[in-house]
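Changelog note: in this version the structure field was regenerated for every chain. One regenerated record is shown below for reference.
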Amino acid sequence: MSAYSAQMRTHFKRSLRTDAGGLSMQYADMHSSDDITVQVKALRERAGLSVRKLAMRMGKSSSGYLHYESPDRYKGGPLPVAFAKELAAALAPEGIPSEDVFRLTGLPAGKVEQDPVDLVDIYDVQASAGHGVVVYDEEAVAQLAFPPGYLSKLTSAKPQDLKIISVKGDSMVPTLAEDDVVMLDVTKRDLSYDGLFVIKDGGDALLVKRIGRASQRGFVTIISDNRTVYPSVEKALADIEVVGRVVWKGGKV
């Protein structure tokens, strides 16, 4: 784990809720990972459900669900609201009150049920605007809340198909600066359209680059906006794995 990743996680563990109508981060350093995972497991066992059956009810893989029962995988902090709602709905037929689940979010039950915000997962992952940064961790560490209707102006994708990661490096200056964050629509992987994309250019490194037309069929041009330092290159489509298209950015002013 890089020093930057550790700093990023510490930053995301702060409570950053803002007034209604503004962006807010649903994360606070209120619960240890052991505390949350033990309680999630206890709720499942109270309901008499196996991991496989509960995961199926929630539309998740067993491994995806077990992230929230494993203190080694769960990063601590309150239970994400989106997951809590899914868990409560899956446990309700077994007589588990939704309040018993929602209290693990650190928010009042009424707030969880009525909060109309859209939540997008934040990952402790860096996409390099430079020479490539290896992905060490692909688990959500927080969620960023957006006002109702805001995301629909950016994309038609559902919130669960959007991911927020950070940017490292200077190759996309002035469009993206180091430590900016970008939102990816992971349903948009078609490079026949120009735009900003996060890609894997061989190996495990993530790159955020502008994609343009190339001089030959089956290729695209990978463009860095900081062109005086980073020249454009043409790459075969077959050699590129597309993670998603950048639809939003945030950063310092």
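Spot check on this record: Confidence is low (pLDDT under 50) at residues 1-30, 132-137. The longest helix spans residues 33-47.
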